[in-house]
Design brief:
This protein is an alpha/beta fold. The chain has 7 helices and 9 strands; from the N terminus they run βαββαββαβαβαβαβα. Strand 8, helix 6 and strand 9 form a beta-alpha-beta unit.
């Protein structure tokens, strides 16, 4: 029987996927895996999450693809002379919960045939969607949720990044029927203490 897998994705870039991944790894004492890292190879998201959580290397799995350019995975791979093959993306096997961090949003292409959303059923994972409040975020969030529903992808729920915005959050949750999993605070001091504090909010997911 496979372990529980949560696929962390966002409504766009820079919405807080890596922060949520660190918070949940800490909260659940889960393992972490980012299948595709595009750019920032000297300080990958795996390195960041491990530093933020202070957990041992045993919890962290190496990327399947390390791509040199900070671009969409398909473009970064093509520039590097690589083709990402979905069948070569095999989730680590263990008895612990696994946090899988995606790259970009759901419709980011990983090659000329597959999008990021295609990886979720491939890994038999449930989605945790990260939404951040900005002008247009309602549209981006509902479009993401509609794409998941249309493809029959399992949704665990939504985590909001930032202070509560009742107008935005209420309409998203009412229209989608998605489960509210919680929120984390925006901060200018992203460090181990912050992750530890925020992780206490998510221990029962």
């Amino acid at each position: 029987m496979s372990s529980t897998r949560y696929f962390i994705t966002g409504i766009g870039t820079d919405v807080g996927k890596t922060v949520v991944s660190a918070i949940l790894v800490k909260a659940l004492k889960a393992n972490y895996w980012k299948p595709i890292q595009a750019g920032d190879l000297e300080n990958t998201d795996r390195m960041k999450v491990q530093a933020f959580t202070g957990m041992s290397a045993d919890y962290f799995h190496p990327e399947s693809y390390l791509l040199p350019y900070p671009m969409s995975p398909h473009a970064s791979a093509e520039r590097a002379g690589i083709e990402i093959e979905i069948d070569k993306l095999i989730a680590p096997q263990h008895d612990n919960k696994l946090i899988i961090e995606g790259a970009g949003g759901l419709m980011v292409p990983i090659n000329r045939r597959n999008l990021m959303i295609d990886l979720i059923p491939h890994f038999n994972a449930e989605v945790i969607l990260v939404s951040r409040h900005y002008l247009g975020s309602i549209n981006h969030t509902l479009l993401s949720l509609e794409a998941l529903e249309r493809r029959g992808v399992k949704l665990k729920g939504i985590i909001f990044n930032g202070d509560k915005n009742q107008d935005t959050e209420s309409i998203i949750l009412e229209r989608s029927g998605a489960r509210f999993l919680g929120r984390f605070s925006e901060t200018n001091e992203l460090n181990r203490d912050f992750i530890e504090k925020e992780s206490l909010k998510f221990s029962d997911i």
